[in-house]
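Section 4.2 – Deliverable D4.2 (structural model, holo form)

The reporting period included a commitment to supply a predicted holo structure for the target in complex with 3-phosphoglyceric acid. Inputs used:
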Amino acid sequence: MKKILIATEKPFAKVAVEGIKKIIEDAGFEVALLENYSQKVELLQAAADVNAIIIRSDIVDSDVLAAAKNLKIVVRAGAGYDNIDLATASAKGVVAMNTPGQNSNAVAELAIGMMIFAARNNFNGVSGTELKGKNLGLHAYGHVGKAVATIARGFGMEIYAFDPFVDKKTIEAEGIHYVADVSDLYKSCQYVSLHMPATQQTKKSINFGLLSLMPKGATLINTARKEVVDEEGLLEMFTERADFKYVSDVEPDCKGLIAEKFSGRFYFTPKKIGAQTAEANNNAGLAAARQIVHFFTDGDTTFQVNK
Ligand code: 3PG
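Output (structure tokens):
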């Protein structure tokens, strides 16, 4: 009998765990659950005899892949798969998948919420500004970028998008200004929201050169990954531009310095919460379970990311 491990350092909502179990057990497979773990060794032990693993931001590195001797598939219930060692997975014949789009509305709602929070001075009572009529730049236009655009339209924002992998026609068809050069996105928008994955190309790519192009009242919203922001450039921007604010889902490494010097101009979630809603957990978790069942029963590799 196939054994599927749900390994979540940050647990899914209870309803999602129940749903995942039902899908797996109805298919005749067995479920193991490792939640809230704090030591890597716990994951190594739990993975030792399983055929599949469902994870979130949990690290599946070469040690985990070596320990999981019977592993055939790992599914990241979510979008970003920078936490999986894809090269080692491929070398070991392990299929890696994500569940694209399943948690994007939750992340988009958080991005908008953080924008409002910044525009209203972290709800401190001092007169703020409105989102209506402001320019919003979407740096990357995947599932989350699209969901942010849908909500921002309702707020009366003017929306711009830059994404080297999405063509002009697709972006313009959705009533969004297509931006061919990333510098123009930052020049045009008071609000820039980041939605790219963390890759060799994107890490530290949001630097002072780009940020300093932003018009007065600049706010950067990061619900992507902290690694895409160049923290030296970020500190320079905070220093040079008294109008600049940064809100981020998960704190940067330089949080202490920012808190010390730039009080009132930032907000960081203590733990990544963008996808932490019952709905997103359900959508992504259940999709992961179904993908595993289809993989074992029909050989379906639709969402494989290490092809
Ligand atoms: C994702 O890549 O899907 C999001 O960052 C959510 O990550 P999480 O499942 O760890 O909350």
